[in-house]
Amino acid sequence: MGITERLIEDVGIRRGVSRLTPEKIEKIVNAVLKGETGARLKTYAETCMRCGLCAEACHFALSHPDDPSYTPAGKVHQTMSVLLDKKGRVDPDFVYGMAQLAYTECNLCRRCVHLCPIGIDTAYIMSTVRRICHKLGVTPQYMQDTAHSHASTFNQMWVKDDEWTDSLIWQEDEAREEFPGLRIPLDKEGSDIYYSVIAPEPKFRTQLIYQAAAIMHMAGVDWTMPASTGWDNSDMCMFSGDFEMMGRLKRQHFESAQKLKVKRIVMGECGHAFRSVYDTGNRWLGWRHHPVPVIHAVEFYWELIQEGRIKLAKKFPGPVTIQDPCNIVRGRGLQEKLREVTRFLVDGDIIEMHPNREHNFCCAAGGGVINCGPPFKNVRVDGNTVKAEQLRATGVKTVITPCHNCHGGLHDIIHHHKLGMDLKFLSDIIYECMEKPEA
Amino acid sequence: MNAAYEFVTGPLAWFAWGIFILGAAWRLYSMYQLAKKKDASSWAFMDLGFSLRSIVNWLIPFNALGWRKSPVMTVATFAFHICLILVPVFLVAHVVLWTEFFGISYATLPDSVADAMTLVVLAACLIFAGRRLTQKEVAYITTGKDWLALVIVTLPFLTGFLAYHQIFDYQVMIIAHIVAGEIMLAAIPFTRLSHMVFAAFTRAYMGSEFGGVRHARDW
After folding, report:
1. Using the beta-carbon criterion (under 8 Å), do A77 and B218 form an inter-chain contact?
2. What is the pLDDT of residue A439?
3. pLDDT tens, B147-168?
4. CB contacts, 8 Å: A334 with chain B
5. Which domains does chain B have, with CATH numbers?
6. What is the ipTM of this complex?
7. Which of A53, A121, A329 lies closest to B66 in CB terms?
8. Which of A127, A265, A367, B47 has the highest CB neighbour count under 10 A?
């Protein structure tokens, strides 16, 4: 039982491990433990009473009910506890398992916080394990590729500077047929809203930029998108453990907004990017508060609806269910606004999944797990049968999912279990249902 | 036997209390210093209101998701912790000692109630041990440190119960009881039992993060 019995071949992890020696491991583990951790890790390691209550928290554990090595404490037991007990004196093979576990079997979703009486943050512990793996040069190949892209281009998907502006101009061009007069204003100084997205949007979900532009246009928003780096708010470096790069990315994002003297940043429907901006990146940079106010798309749409600036030509036929993304719900308390926006858009009931809101199960794609690529796809699909059961129990055909990672994760779960459900971003529905010029 | 009794209630008691109080104070102080030095980006978000909100919500049985999901453990752990604190503090025989040594006197629990509460502690310890042996998710993560903590806590209550009911030799048992209690006090700052010192702060920190940064509840 445990990670050593379910190792999966990954070229990045394998190559990294092949370069390690026990001396190097010991040196780096202790450098991170002494240099970057303190009272938090110490108290967590010491006061975890090993009561096992967290087993009820984790979708991986609940989806593998006979295997306790998937529980939050079980994962810490196989990784950080060993590093601490052995003071970093572990062999390279151990590092292979530790990396696979930390990168692919924990989504850093923090649901276990809701089950731990003394409030141990397992996500923090697993992030620290990832940090050590990163410093050891042992990272899954696909995830490291996105981290390299971040380091080279300041975006996650190797989008070149001209391709970025090209994509925006292309979408503007397309949209002007449907919305005469629509603009995607580039680098417009002093705008009310700086709209940032994750790199997969220009790369392969370009219609989301089209839809966002349509919503901004029809709502009469004074907005802009940056023409150069900083436009990608995503952050796989936060998840790979490359915190230096995470800091550079967030600084670029904020500085790009500051240069344009905008009033606020609105982020597209993505969870992890939001986490990197409101919670982790700013801390790494030593900023308690954001230098520019930031809100998530859910909150932005909610505001537009409150102000009566989104007008619907029709309502979306329900019933629907809602996937509560960890990073905007458990991470930012947007659950009620998400439901209010949904009620505004949908004609019919919201059939809740159970549990829901802060207690919802993660999609098993977040925390960088989906970015570890095809070798680990089954880890997250088989590791989330509870999500499949949760979805099936609603009996609805549409899942509102305001997060890119949740989309990817639920898409695979829905197909694997043949649930026959459609996934929708809020912007998909707003765009589909809003008043349009010709309508 | 009298000399032994004098020793365990005299110098050894001072020693155990000294380790407990000074040890706990030192651990708290050094952890505070460490937190300020190495966890500044967490420390910055500590908030009294959100800390108390989290602590209070977790002190209500079956209020937090964690309690609702494991009802047997919830009943056991609440009963255990309440009795664990009340019995030693308010036991007649203990208050008599405070009076004898320091002239301090305060309310006490009737012996029959304290006796029943002692059995509750012992029953809870059995449940905890049973979980460690039979529940796979607990057994998997159980280490020597966890058994040690459980044994350290069980012994004072077991010996106290046996002494009170004069099972086996009372003289031996009462000395064993006092020593066991002193071991427990001295062990608190340096074993898993240190959660007595730190748990309020780990909970408070999570409450602060969820309240102040994540705008969500953590229970």
Report:
1. no
2. 52
3. 999 999 999 999 999 999 999 9
4. 215
5. 2-213 (1.20.950)
6. 0.95
7. A53
8. A367
